[in-house]
Amino acid sequence: MDDTALVIWDPALVGYDFGEGHPMNPLRLALTAKLAEGLGVLEHVRIEAPSLPDGSDAFLETVHSREYLDAVRAASQNPASADQNFGIGTEDDPAFAGMHDVSALIAAGTLQAVQAVHSGEARHAVNFTGGLHHSMPDKASGFCIYNDAAVGIQWLLDQGVERVAYVDIDVHHGDGVEKVFWNDPRVLTISIHESGTVLFPGTGFARDIGGPDAEGSAVNISLPPGTGDSDWLRALHAVVHPVVTAFKPQFMVTQHGCDSHYSDPLAHMVLTVDAQKMAHRSLHELAHDVCDGRWVALGGGGYELVDVVPRSWTHLTAIAADRPIPLETETPAEWRAHVEEITGRTAPSRMGDGVAEKDDVWFQSWASGMHPESTVDQAVMATREAVFPLHGLDVWFD
């Protein structure tokens, strides 16, 4: 196996652009690539531009209906004709010229990443332009046109991989990926997110555990708004790590939406980049523990374009390259000048938010016992009670 990490990137991917004023501003992607380059991360990875397999977008039909694909193609050619029955032309997913082509390229990038790790051409792979986890088989949703994560996972299943774990740490429930594999026991989908009682898409509760042939294959940790670093990390480790370990996946795909940050405009969690980096590192370590490091990491949500997304996903990329960046590292002066020039804003001067000590954020493990008065622990216990027995795990103890 080649120990080099693969990064999917091409400036053309900033063409995934819903227009001025839309939260999904592609500037976040360009600034991530520029920061990773400025810190030398990209010198230690192999970079590939995405390309359609065999020059065709037929690979999308492994997840999406032909009718939906035809609707996206038509809206790409004439945005005014977008059919809202397919979720296109809405406020969340406005149609734009070339929408199909760039969305297909993002999905192709995730497919390339999965193929490279599966074949041993790369140990890890990152596509921070991907992670478009809300897209449904026959409908756009939540800024997501094609579900690249589901496309990559389906390809693995088609090659005979028997168990794939998908872990989603975006602040929004990973409903699209869960939907695709709802009744497939070969895929474990885990989502840790802000409760659907207060946040889009309004789904992903503890008792949502998978279809009749796959009970326990869907795992949802639905946390209250205002959850911070220590409680969030406690929840992550109390559920994700034991369930993934029990599942024994042969491959891990993870989605690293960073909209859980305290400054993100679309949600209500209060995490720092420090905790997000710790989660990236933890999932990387988990992949080595359970599936010999066969790991593909994707981007996702994140709408604080300057202060959060570039730093969080540069940390993710550096971790995949086995060259983690200390949180106290200064951001490059050239990058900060570039940010000010194009946005008029002052960029963060360091790679962390100043919370961690020695690059770690403290949290209390579940081994200390449940705290009944904690709403976070109540949410964690609801998830553990719903799915742990189905994986042969003890609800109360690690």
Blueprint of the fold:
Elements: E1 5-8, H1 27-38, E2 45-48, H2 66-77, H3 99-119, E3 124-127, H4 148-158, E4 164-168, H5 175-180, E5 187-194, E6 218-223, H6 229-247, E7 251-255, H7 273-291, E8 295-298, H8 309-320, H9 333-343, H10 375-387
Helix pairs in contact: 1-8, 3-4, 6-7, 6-10, 7-8
Quickly give the structural class.
alpha/beta
- Quickly name the level 1 CATH class: Alpha Beta
CATH architecture: 3-Layer(aba) Sandwich
What is the helix content?
25-40%
Overview of the structural elements:
It holds the Pfam family Hist_deacetyl. By secondary structure, this protein is α/β, with parallel strands linked by helices. It has one domain: 3-Layer(aba) Sandwich (Arginase, Chain A), CATH 3.40.800.20. The protein has helices spanning 27-38, 66-77, 99-119, 148-158, 175-180, 229-247, 273-291, 309-320, 333-343, 375-387, and strands at residues 5-8, 45-48, 124-127, 164-168, 187-194, 218-223, 251-255, 295-298. Helix 6 (229-247) packs parallel to helix 7, helix 6 packs parallel to helix 10 and helix 7 runs parallel beside helix 8 (309-320). It starts with a strand and ends in an 11-residue tail after the last helix.
